[in-house]
Amino acid sequence: MSFKTLRKMVQQVKPPLRGVVFDLDGTLTVQNLDFRAMHDRCGVPAGEDLLQAVAAMDGAQRHHAENVIEEMEEEGRRTLQLAQGAVELGKWLHWWNVPTAIVTRNTQATVQHLHEKLWCPYNLPKFWPSVAREFVPPKPHPAALEMIAWEWDVALGQGLLMVGDSPSNDIAFGKAAGVSTALVDADRRHFEEQTGADFVVQSLVELPRILWQHFDVNPSAEGPRRRPPIPISAACRAASSGDVPTLQHMELKDLEASDEFGNTPLIWAAESGSVAVVEMLLAAGVDANAKGYAGNSAISRASRHGHEPILRSLLAAKVGIKLDDPNDKLQSPLHFAAFYQHSQAVQLLLDAGASTISIDSKGRTPADFAGDSGHADDHACGIRDMILRVRETHLK
Q: Spans of the ANK repeats (predicted)?
C-alpha cells in the first residue's frame, strides 16, 4: 500500500461523535437580550467584557449593574423562545444517544427555565452538565469544556463539538479546548468573516446532516435489515385486498389488531391503496395513528406510495392525524413523499401543516430527501424548492 493511499484512508476516517455542547442565547434560543442596552445601562463600553467589567466595579456601581443585568435577564426569560430547529436537533441527538451540555454566560435560573418550560415538555432530557455564569472562569477560557469532558468520561478532541453564535466567545472557546466547532450565523452577520469555525450554519436544522457526514454517529444503532412484511391475519389480508364486506362483519378489536409484523388493517389498506377500506375503518373508529412495521403509520405508507385519495381521507378524519410522527429511522410522512417524488402528496402534507424541518436519523430534512433519491432531476428539484418555499414562509 502506497503512502498516498494510506494518507487518503486516514483522512477519510471520521471521528466518533462523543457529545455536543451548546451555547444558549442566540444558539439554542432566539436572541432576545439587547446587549448594547445592557452595556449602556451598566456603564460598560461595548467592546469590553461585561461580566469582567462588572466584577471589577466597587460598591453601589457594581450593585446597580448587577441589578440591571438581573432585570433584563428576567425579562429575557419571560420571552424566551427556542431557535428554529432546536427541538428537531435535540430529538435527533437523543435518538442517537449523543450527550448534550450547555455552557452559557447567562444564569442557572435561565437554564432551569429552558428545561422546565421549553425543552423537557418535548420529552427531551435535560442538558448535562449545564454550565452557567456561576462557573468560573467563564468562556472563552476552556475550563468548562474540560470539566464536561471529565464528567462524560471522554477525551477532549475532534469528537466533541461546541455550537455557538459568537466567533469570539463560543468558537474561540471550542478552539481553546481543541474540540470541533460550529457557528450558528442565523442573520449571516459573519458571512464574510474568517470565523475559524469548522462548520457554519444558518439554522440548527442543518447540523444533523453535517454531523452525519463528518462524524461517526454510531451506525450500529440502525440494526439489521428486516425481512419485508406480508399480511398475516384475516383482517389484514382483507384490508390489503380491499375486501370491505369481510371487514364489515368483524368486531372493532379485530379491525384494530396488529399482525405479527405490527401492522394493523388500516396500515395494510394504506399500503395497498384501498380507499374504500380506509374510509370504512376510519368510520369504525380504529386508531388512525397506530404504528406498525419499522414504526410506520398509515399516513407514512400512503405518503410513500403517493396514494393521494387515502391521504385526503386520513387528513380529513375527525381524529387528529399525527402529521410528523416519525418511524424507527425518524422519517416523517413528508420525508417519504419527497424521497419518492410524489409532488401531489407533498403538497397535501404541506397544506396540512407538515413540518419542513423534521430530521431523520441521518440528519436529512424532507427537502434533503428530495435530492437524495438517486435521480435528482428537475422534478426532484421542484419538490425540494416547494418544501423550501414553505419553510422560508414560516420563518418570516
A: 261-293, 329-361
